[in-house]
Amino acid sequence: MTDKPGVVVTGVSGRMGQMLVREVLASDKLRLTGALERPGHAWLGHDLGEAMGGASIGVRVQDDPLECFARAQAVLDFTAPDATVAFAELTAQARAVHVIGTTGLERKHLDQIALAARHAVIVRAGNMSLGVNLLTQITKQVAAALDADWDIEIVEAHHNRKVDAPSGTALMLGEAAAEGRGVALADVSDRGRDGITGTRERGDIGFHAIRGGDIVGEHEVIFAAAGERIVLKHIASDRALFARGALRAALWGQDKAPGQYDMLDVLGMRPAK
After folding, report:
1. Which of 109, 140, 158, 219 is catalytic?
2. Catalytic residue check, 162
3. Among 7, 55, 152, 201, which is least packed, fewest CB within 10 Å?
């Protein structure tokens, strides 16, 4: 027997799924108990290690989340919004920690996740790196110090297979900037400029998405005023840093009360109220 928490990784065939698997297998604090893929996937029934091109690890790929989650203490989920909502309900039933790195979530998804968090620990973050979470806090502070004469623009770059835009991290930075200004992001967000758009609205927060090659993740927050600019930037060169953050969140959540948390909680960076 072992006292290491058991972990299920969802979407194991994807880039992030495979990275999460490798990090769990390398961990001396967690153990891999389940591997989940969508029904009909070619990996189903195969040993996960062999499916990933390596040696057998004794964990077979399944498509039944209920069975997987029943024997787990944590679920690492970087999949798609609808799948994440379905997983949240089942993870809550299993009383497992649900670590959510899924992006592209809409209000309807967030409302369902909030319901699941009444019964289980959910750690959800647009980005799980220490650097990005520091950038988020700095963005909020700078936005609070500058008035609306300083335009805010957020530029993000990712690989050419990313399906959502703006990125979850860009939106997290936008939320931080809006909070610093004391406004709602939904009221000031400017995400589309094409053609004759007219002049920039004072107080808006602009978003721009770049997609190309194998870019892991780059985020830049620009504060621009007449005659000067402040540029805050984070560059991720290794996807493993997101996986390591997810594992840290899974461990952190083991003794916490049900509810929704984020990486500021996990990293001990939550500002005092």
Report:
1. 158
2. yes
3. 55
Place of tokens 């880039």: 15
pLDDT tens for residues 85-95? 999 999 999 99
- Take residue 184 and report the two structure tokens written for it: 């709602």
For residue 179, being part of any structural domain is answered with: yes
Domain that holds residue 41: 6-124+239-266
Q: Which residues are documented as binding site?
A: 11-16, 37-38, 101-103, 125-128, 159, 168-169
Binding positions for (S)-2,3,4,5-tetrahydrodipicolinate are 159, 168-169
CATH code of 192's domain: 3.30.360.10
Q: Quick one: pLDDT at residue 104?
A: 86
Give the containing element (helix H, strand E) for 75.
Answer: strand 74-77
One domain for residues 11 and 120: yes
Which pairing describes strands 151-158 and 205-211: parallel, antiparallel, or unpaired? parallel
Q: What parts of the chain have a pLDDT lower than 50?
A: 1
Residue with tokens 């948390």: 261
Catalytic residue among 41, 46, 162, 208: 162
CATH assignment at residue 249: 3.40.50.720
Place of tokens 């990784």: 9
Examine the residue annotation and report whether 158 is marked as an active-site residue of this protein: yes
pLDDT on residue 126:
82
Domain count, the chain: 2
Structure tokens at 83: 């799948």
Q: Are 201 and 229 part of one and the same domain?
A: yes
Domain membership of residue 272 (yes or no) is no
